[in-house]
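Weekly modeling sync, notes
Attendees: S.R. (lead), two postdocs, one rotation student

Agenda item 3: backlog of single-chain predictions. S.R. asked that every request posted to the team notebook include the full sequence so nobody has to chase files. The rotation student volunteered to paste the first one in as an example of the format we agreed on. Action items at the bottom.

Example entry:
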Amino acid sequence: MDKTSKIYIAGHNGMVGSALTRRLENEGFSNFVFRTFEELDLRNQQDVADFFAKEKPDYVFLAAAKVGGIVANNTYRAEFIYDNLMMEANIIHQSYVNGVKKLLFLGSSCIYPKLAPQPLKEEYLLTGELEPTNEPYAIAKIAGIKLCDAYRSQYGCNFISVMPTNLYGPNDNYDLEKSHVLPALIRKMQLGKWLQANDWASIKANFNAIPIEGVNGDASETDMLEKLEKYGIQRNSSGDVQVELWGTGSPLREFLHVDDLADACVYLMKNYNEPGLVNIGCGEDLTIKALAELVKEIVGYSGAIVWNSTKPDGTPRKLMSVEKLKSFGWTAKIGLREGISGVVEQRFKR
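Predicted structure, as returned to the notebook:
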């Protein structure tokens, strides 16, 4: 890539896409082409074909996806497989048709078998059954990897695939129905802290900034308390605040700041030109229980955490092997405490 290259970032408004834009802008790239969902439905084959024929990008970062946590993945199973299959197939095919010099496809660590050996190595793909709760999404992402490799094999396209671990950072999704575990933890702890202080102004402002159905600017304390209780943020019989979290807290997870991911993607776009996939992570994990305690400390919530073991835990462990990535000369730079502290400061400081 050079500074005059035309770059299309699919999903530029999302957490990953916006991080890629920031990273490239910081390096002096400015010839971007963007389309919002309202301007271009990536699921529509003809619309995507027309867009590529008109814009002719040189490089493509395929960061557009329908994403969510356990609840969303398990509830909207058809949408997660259909939407993701259509988006990636349309973009990858039109990149070939229109002579894109290089494409980077972003997958997900959920592509690996539920009980695969840890840490997860790239060669473990398709060696066992997937985690049932997010299987449709995982299958769509596996299809994207195989599309890239097939177009490379048949047509000589320089299409590469990367598999990020769990991500967090600016522009994350804090919807308590659809968010991933870390943003959900941060928001729940913050709301619990405000409930402890009876800070209804902050709770209302948060509900309005990150909309929750049934709560608006005229919401009463009773309305807001009802919504808090729906999401497990409430006072117990003694009057003390507690936050309920799903599962046992025992699963192990790895978390990478999205700015580190963007840095790795740009690095690989410049330096990696092979079939297969490359894991992107930090190579360290911790239990969800330990993560919850870390978030609690950073946010300053002093109430109880209650674990609802009737709810699913998901995959027992999901740690990425990053030896392949390290062999190309890249390692993560942003520590978890530093990263979470920055997110809390940016998103929830009043």
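Discussion: group reviewed the output briefly. The chain is about 45% helix and 15% strand.
Action items: rotation student to repeat for the remaining queue; S.R. to check formatting next week.
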